Amino acid sequence: MKKIILVAVVFVFLTAAVGTVFAGGFDEYGYNYGARLFNGWYGYYDKDIAGGTDDAWLVMKWSKDWTPMGDEPVGAWCTNHFSWYSNDYDEDTWYGWETRLAWTDPSITPNAKYYMTEFLKIMKVSDKPEAWEEYLEGGAYDAEWGHYDDGVPKYVVFQDVVEVYQISEDGSYTLIATYDLATTSPKGLGRPIF
Fold it and tell me: Using CA atoms, how far apart are residues 133 and 193, in angstroms rounded to an integer?
């Protein structure tokens, strides 16, 4: 009888201690912290549903040491995959990002000419000005989430690919353009880039 009670107590304790991890699933915003994944409207990533969908879908995946919207350790990374619809993909309007169409239901395709996706890799980096200059020359850019005292950004976007799909009258999608905005190597994840 003591073994059954002990097992039951341990099970209840473990369930309470890690309930959100084992419970799984996504919360109302689109976060699944156990899977280190966000899958939802871009406008919900900051947990402000009242702000609206922001007309784009966002899928994020992050490393074990990344805390969403926290101060990350060097080497922590996050990927962002945005999707939106537009009738314009001019470079001057950020390939349609500023001209995206109203989209509030993921099961309904807006009446659009283009479907756009953007994939980013972001990493917290160490303070090495020479390495930052090398990556800057290769197309990496400042994620604008803070800087070290010498001006080196703390977070760097080191891969950024935009794909543009034309939507046919029959509803099919055809890839018509790809823009590799940051060509810096290495593009792998899991280790600091500098």
Answer: 12
Q: SS3 for 20?
A: helix
Q: What is the CA radius of gyration of the chain?
A: 21
Question: CA distances (Å), 25 to each of 14, 18, 68, 81, 157, in order?
Answer: 18, 14, 17, 20, 29
pTM more than 0.90: no
Residues 115 and 85 sit within 8 Å (Cβ to Cβ): yes
Measuring CA to CA, which residue among 112, 116, 124 is closest to residue 163?
Answer: 116
What would the pLDDT profile of 126-185 be if each residue is shown by its tens digit? 999 988 988 888 888 999 999 999 999 999 998 899 999 999 999 999 999 998 888 766
Amino acid at 3: K
